[in-house]
């Protein structure tokens, strides 16, 4: 399978939208795998997805300048739903998460977060207007601070996450 460099892809996207590359951190030069998923809906197909394959990565939080640029892009959206997924690689800082949440609330946009292995308090402090959070088992266990071994453990964790964050939970 060919490897694609995110920096090359990012440069292409930025050029297509007339955005300067000057503010982008050199850490963007990571290797990713390319996988294609096909979805059939009324004979229309395909979207592409990029996934990180690097064993090691820099999880240093992005700079405030980059966070502000990203927030500007988010605030320009006409979407009805915004999905935030970070992979704990430094993209979604508390500053950015809080402002995304305030924006989506103000704009009437549903905010969905792909949960990561962070304590529930992190989400409570940084996303005050979640519509949906989608942690897997390990991420839900990290959120509630205990192992989830049984079906009842999972159900209780889902209830705790829902009650604490006041949002829907897909576990």
Furnish the topology, listing elements before pairings:
Elements: E1 3-5, H1 6-16, E2 31-37, E3 47-52, H2 64-75, E4 81-85, H3 94-107, E5 110-114, H4 120-126, E6 132-133, H5 137-144, H6 151-165, E7 168-169
Parallel strand pairs: 4-5, 5-6, 6-7
Antiparallel strand pairs: 1-2, 2-3
Helix pairs in contact: 2-3, 5-6
* Largest sheet report: 4 strands, parallel
Q: Unreliable runs, pLDDT <50, ≥5 residues?
A: 26-40, 45-55
Average pLDDT score = 77
The quaternary structure here is single chain
For the terminal residues, how far apart are their CA atoms? 31 Å
Beta strand %: 15-25%
Query: Rg from C-alpha positions?
Result: 18 Å
Strand order of the largest sheet: 4-5-6-7
Q: Care to count the β-strands? A: 7
Element pattern in H and E:
EHEEHEHEHEHHE
| Residues in helices, as a percent range | 25-40%
Gross morphology is globular
- What's the number of helices? 6
Q: What structural class do you assign from the helix and strand content?
A: alpha/beta
What does this structure look like?
With 171 residues, the protein is of the alpha/beta class. It is 39% helix and 18% strand. It contains six helices and seven strands, in the order E-H-E-E-H-E-H-E-H-E-H-H-E. Helix 4 links the parallel strand 5 (110-114) and strand 6 (132-133). The radius of gyration is 18 Å and the shape is globular. It starts with a strand and ends with a strand.
